[in-house]
Design a protein that fits this description.
The chain is mainly α and 72 residues long. It contains two helices and no strands.
Length: 72
């Protein structure tokens, strides 16, 4: 379901060998950490876009109310 190495780690039933841990560290640093960083970057951008959308919606709502007040 997740990264294959994480799945292998979770399936281990006994003590794991040191070389397996070193392999995990290499793979996690090379593959998993950059993916997590990218996810965090995307979350930040998403939050910024949501804030911008809310601001634009509020501005549009104010304009709509102003236009209704002028025509009323």
């Amino acid at each position: 379901m997740g990264h294959p190495l994480l799945d292998e780690f979770c399936r281990a039933k006994s003590l794991l060998r040191p070389e397996f841990f070193r392999r995990c560290q290499r793979v996690f640093n090379a593959e998993v950490t950059p993916q997590l960083d990218e996810i965090e970057t995307l979350r930040t951008k998403y939050a910024e876009l949501e804030a911008k959308l809310e601001a634009l919606q509020a501005k549009a709502e104010r304009k709509r109310k102003d236009a209704e007040a002028v025509t009323a």
